[in-house]
From TrEMBL:
GO cellular component: plasma membrane
Location within or outside the cell: Cell membrane
PANTHER family (UniProt xref): SENSOR HISTIDINE KINASE TRCS (PTHR45436:SF5), SENSOR HISTIDINE KINASE YKOH (PTHR45436)
Alphabetic keyword roster: Kinase, Membrane, Phosphoprotein, Transferase, Transmembrane, Transmembrane helix, Two-component regulatory system
EC number(s) given by UniProt: 2.7.13.3
Catalytic activity: ATP + protein L-histidine = ADP + protein N-phospho-L-histidine
Organism of derivation: Actinomadura montaniterrae
Identification of the protein by name: histidine kinase
Amino acid sequence: MRVPWKRLSPSCWSVRARVTAAATLMVGLVLVAGVVVFYTLVQRTVYGGLHQRGDLVVGDLAALVRDTDPHGLLRPKDPDFTILQVQDDRGHVLAYSDALRGRGPVKAPRPQVVDRPEDHVIHVKRFDVDVYMVGERIRTSFGFRTIYAGAPLTELTRNKGAFIGLLIGAAITGTALVAWIVAGAVRRALRPVRKMSDELANITGGEPGRVSVPDPSDEVAELAQSVNLTLHRLEALLDRQRAFVGDVSHELRSPLTGLRTQLELALQHPEDEDWPAVARAALADADRLQGIVSDLLILAKLGAGVHVERERVDFGALVRAEASRRDRRVPVEIDAAEGIAVRATPEQLVRLLTNLLDNAERHARSRIWVTAARDGPDAVLEVRDDGSGVPPEDRERIFWRFQRLAEGRRRDKGGTGLGLTISRDIARAHGGTLVAADGDGGARFVLRIPAEDD
């Protein structure tokens, strides 16, 4: 059976497992380092005290050897340093303590420098313990002598294994305790997240719904609020889509029904019909359908964020060219400054300007004014007419899809009601805004898009 090694990778672990493993590893390393440091400090403390006392014992023994050159039994003055021995330069034992009675020379490193104590830890088989041994080679009137003073490390040697085991056990216990605490804390912290996940899984395509916001005001609560805000936006988008589908079906049904009715009536009595008139009426309905479909495709592309190449455009020149490109029912006065550069898609800006001009021509009594200027970081376009204007309460509604005021329906029965919607979406796609502002009696539309520096 092949082992699924990929499942053992930390990237496949849960958040709880990863956090617990990381915290446990860090704490384990800290505890191990602490144990090593603690043991080292304890060892240095013990050996440091022995070093000071050993130097004193060796110093006293060196003074005694220089004065009397003792032979035979030595009496220890320090209760811990009970191992004493004096050797001549040939290694023969001259004096010794009772602990080394009948023993040969101690097997300790021979000091190399005269009158400088050297300390070592050696193992003495007779005592079956480690011995802290201090040795010194001295010069006397009787010749060179080597003296040794040792203290058995009975307690340290006897309890060394238990002490090390205790430290290792404490480190393991502390690491396991930390792992248990971290795992429990992460489990409790992620409990609201699991609840939100279950609530999101139970949300169907009908209604987005909401998730529960936990009581503590922390990052998880902020996440729940962000999820609810996203769900609210999705719900609003879903409502708009439903309304859009309903409006589209209504707008498409009318010309299709009219076209079908005309053709059915004409076919009932074909010999009595004026077929050129029937064809012209059918063509008018087909043109309306084509206009609706074209506008819907543009809205779909803008809404989907389809990437369109943009280029540096002279905003004033584009406005002058498009505003004067064809004759209109009323005169159009153009005041467009030069040298206003914008990064845009020319075809979309032309569509926006055409929609605004067509709307102004539809409502104007005698004149249309078009201005283009630079205002701080923005390029600003204004299209005004001297018609009846837009009531303040309707200045946002006219940008809704398929929303047409009574006057607009009266003046142009074949419109789709999507022109201003497309214009605002184009403005937003270019990082700008399009609003219906206050005017001197007539309608006034203001477009702002970011301008580029020269």
